Amino acid sequence: MLPFKLVYHDKYDLNLGEHVFPSQKYRLIYEKLLADGIASREDFVRPNMASDDDILRVHTADWVGKLKTGTLSLSEKMKLEVPYSKKLVEAFWVAAGGTIAAAQTAMRHGFGCNIGGGFHHAYPGHGEGFCAIHDVAVSIRRLQHDGAIQKAMVVDTDVHQGNGTAAIFAKDESVFTLSIHQENNYPAHKPPSTIDLDLEDGVGDEEYLATLLPAVRRGLEKFQPDALFYVGGADPYREDQLGGLALTMEGLKERDGSVFREARRRNVPVVTTFAGGYARRVQDTIQIHVNTVLAAKDAATQFPGA
Ligand SMILES: [Zn+2]
To answer: What is the pLDDT of residues 221-252, one digit of tens each?
Structure first.
């Protein structure tokens, strides 16, 4: 048994077929966690779909209506970069429910891992870059609404800047946003996060960790968040097709574990989500995400309790 819960639903699959986004990855991660004996079935929680009230704390009624009725304009569909379908919309609502459930369990157990989510490019009124609904923001707003937390910190390690996160929380002092990403990459327009760590092309493990960890420490100490939401992109990997950084698999695991330990040694609950990963070999993307759960397990063992 893991000392925390994993949140997963079969409906996380975005059903994209042949697409650079391997949307079957959630099922493959779920299966590998079981096959490798890292988790057993009792470790998993099946989330409910987020309610429309939950979604509407972040997104505009106009955008929610368009998604539900399939009335996106051509340019809105093109920005989203994934084919619109009812199943796609359902997958985003379930993913948001998953990050809410992961956050709720994190408040009890110190960790909560959504085996999905991290759709950090979604804006209140439009979607882009494979992201229609910002599950992390929806979860933060729900926990704030319930009085479970006041202040949240988002640590986004996807190779692409967390533009949706930055835009949603731009004027909100209750949420501290940190994004470490490749500067010379999507999105072209990067609205400012609380802290943006812009990396040159080709940065490897050592420089990456030496840039990230002091910023995470300072953020935790100055801001004192009630929860840390981790967007654990697999795409800073050196074999990624959409990324231009050069982290190794070991470096990525060290990245996850180091952030988790910094939070847990200060008794801050950690909520993990996965975001992007476009390795040439899908198995590599799966392994990097599985390693995030292993890093959480190690940190939870070292710093038990909520
Ligand atoms: Zn990405």
So the answer is: 999 999 999 999 999 999 999 999 999 999 99
Count of CB atoms within 10 A of residue 72's CB? 18
CA distance 3 to 285: 24
The confidence score (pLDDT) of residue 306 equals 57
Token digits of residue 120:
């950090």
User: What does the DSSP assignment read for 202-215?
Assistant: T--HHHHHHHHHHH
Q: What separation in Å is there between the alpha carbon of 233 and the centre of ligand 1?
A: 6
CA distances from 71 to 65, 67, 126 (A): 8, 7, 12
Question: What CA–CA distance (Å, rounded) separates 280 from 222?
Answer: 39
Q: How far is the CA of 288 from the centre of ligand 1 (A)?
A: 14
For residue 222 the two structure tokens come to: 């100055």
Distance CA(222)–CA(293), nearest Å, equals: 27
Q: How far is CA 303 from CA 40, 80, 108, 109, 252, in A?
A: 22, 39, 14, 11, 20
Q: How confident is the model at residue 23 (pLDDT cuts 50, 70, 90)?
A: confident
Q: Residues 245-286: pLDDT tens digits?
A: 999 999 999 999 999 999 999 999 999 999 999 999 999 999
Q: Are 168 and 126 in contact (CB under 8 A)?
A: no
Mean pLDDT estimate for the chain: 96
110 CA from centroid of ligand 1 (Å): 26
Rounded to whole angstroms, how far apart are CA atoms 196 and 167?
A: 13
Angle ∠(254,103,296) on CA atoms, nearest 5: 20
For ion ligand 1, residues whose CB falls within 5 Å: 158, 160, 233, 235, 276
